[in-house]
Design brief:
The complex is a heterodimer of chains A (253) and B (333).
Chain A lengths: L1 E5 L2 E3 L21 E3 L1 H15 L5 E8 L4 H9 L4 E6 L2 H6 L2 H14 L4 E5 L10 H9 L3 E10 L3 E8 L2 E8 L2 E5 L11 H7 L4 E4 L1 H4 L7 E7 L13 H11 L4
Parallel strand pairs in A: 1-4, 1-6, 4-5, 5-11, 6-10, 7-10
Antiparallel strand pairs in A: 2-3, 7-8, 8-9
Helix pairs in contact in A: 2-6, 4-5
Chain B lengths: L3 H16 L1 E5 L9 H13 L2 E8 L3 H8 L4 E8 L8 H15 L3 E5 L2 H13 L5 E7 L4 E6 L4 E7 L4 E5 L15 E4 L10 E8 L12 E5 L10 H10 L2 E4 L1 H5 L20 E5 L5 H4 L7 E6 L12 E4 L2 H13 L1
Parallel strand pairs in B: 1-2, 1-4, 2-3, 3-9, 4-8, 5-8, 11-12, 11-13, 13-14, 14-15
Antiparallel strand pairs in B: 5-6, 6-7
Helix pairs in contact in B: 4-5, 6-9
Classes of the chains: A alpha/beta (253), B alpha/beta (333).
Keywords (chain A): Electron transport, Mitochondrion, Transport
Family (chain A): Belongs to the ETF beta-subunit/FixA family.
Pfam families (chain A): ETF (PF01012)
Amino acid sequence: MKILVGVKRVVDYAVKIRVKPDKTGVIKDNVAHSVNPFCEIALEEAVKLKEAKKASEVVAVTFGNAKSLESLRTALAKGADKAIHIECDDKTADKLEPYHVAKALAELVKKDKYDAVFLGKQAIDDDANQTGQLLAGFLDWPQATFASKVGPSDGALIVTREIDGGLQTVKVKLPAVVTADLRLNEPRYATLPNIMKAKKKPVEKLTAEKLGVDLTPQTEILEVTEPPTRQAGGFVEDVPTLVKKLKEKGVVA
Amino acid sequence: MFSPKTLFFRSFGSIQKRLNSTLVIAEHDDQALGAITLNTITAAQKIGHEISVLVAGANSKKVAEQAAKIPNVKRVLVAEDAKLKDLLPERVSEVVLDAQKKHNFTHILAGGSSFGRGIVPRVAAKLDVSPISDISDVHSVDTFSRAMYAGNAVAKVKSNAKFKLITVRGTAFEASANDGGSASTEAAEVGNINTDISEFVSQELSKSDRPDLQTAKIVISGGRGLKSGENFNILYELADKLGAAVGASRAAVDAGYVPNDMQVGQTGKIVAPELYIAVGISGAIQHLAGMKDSKVIVAINKDKEAPIFQVADFGLEADLFKAVPEMTAELGK
């Protein structure tokens, strides 16, 4: 099984983001970035399948500006065999929609045969939760989203999914798209020797044009604003006071 | 009084109204319509077109009757077929596409639940359009608001896609009334469904007598501070006294104290109850994303510096193992 894994470079999850004063987006310059946590989990699962000899090759792909190469190097250091960088300029990168990314991934899959594509369930910047499902739709492949357990089974994957009311297990025939939820695994850290080795692993450069993907935006961002801020109400001294205040507010009987 | 121009636009507006229509994909369990569908109907009403509801499933008639009673719903499309049992996205999407072919909807909406998120983008791909996730407001037929960056930024977006494929944040819209309407019901086409590529194996749903987390008026959540799954019992006791649902932070889920479907946050459930009580939760960005639209927030934590206190209306700096039982007792008085 040859697995393609999508990784996205995003503003680090611990950063308290700030909106640009001109309301065109959020401030990304001089802000710590890292690989989207869900992508790390998807990658870890693919690498584990390779280590268990259930997968033959793991290819990491990213679609983004020159700096996105860092995410690919991280993926290579964590065990991907090779990487593909679909490169674009900063301005284009800012306007990429999951639709465009999924289109590009679909073209990659058509160009070179993969048995599965592993993605994170959502990117923590746009919070869209779309790319995996869009890709499955473009390819007409089955989808196993929000995976918390993945087991290969004779030309198929048995996937346990995190759904609203609990857990659901489905069997999807390969080729398939899987999107990783938080509970799928604990991603490993890249060791220094592996980081050094990763520098020698191949990175193929591509562009949307070469893949024949039209990047015309379908969604225009009119403005980005801060959400209304909440004012902290302060402390109450003890439980009886707390209960009294909640009763006054009418939120408890 | 009216210039010819206004008159032109007025009549044009009424023609538009007939051409434009919205499909809401109903969520259900063969027995009852999912609560989030009613919130989605309200979002659809804000868009302002004629509303159709699609009920797909192995047993959809009973749910279709419920959908037909929702005010402002014009038409209920009922797709009933054994192949639609368990609502696999590969299969339900095909039914949505058949309905789209026949009725040519301009907008297709579903709730932003695991069901809706599974289907809407897949249908969008097949219609070759870019979808919009988790909208929290409707400004016009093509302009919506949605949260990004764990709710730390709100984007106002305009969709130029030829069809608008949308998931709706349930907590951002009031639930529509579920009685008083009289929609017509018609059978929807169930064409060629490929059952070969995916199949349902099993399901393990968490059982609870408490109200549903996403629609409860009061939510009590526990975090790492609870120290064990057993200790969650003190929250259950308080919850039962208040008729509340119980949620959790990611730390509590990861530590195995409670199942994952109780997680509140950016990647768990989004809640906006009248009262949210955070117990032993520090208040990481990712947790706040799931609860900061609650009307009243109470935080109980022994760390005075915990970020949760910055959003709490009432903060209690105390040992939760003393404060929570005391609160349960105080409320019993």
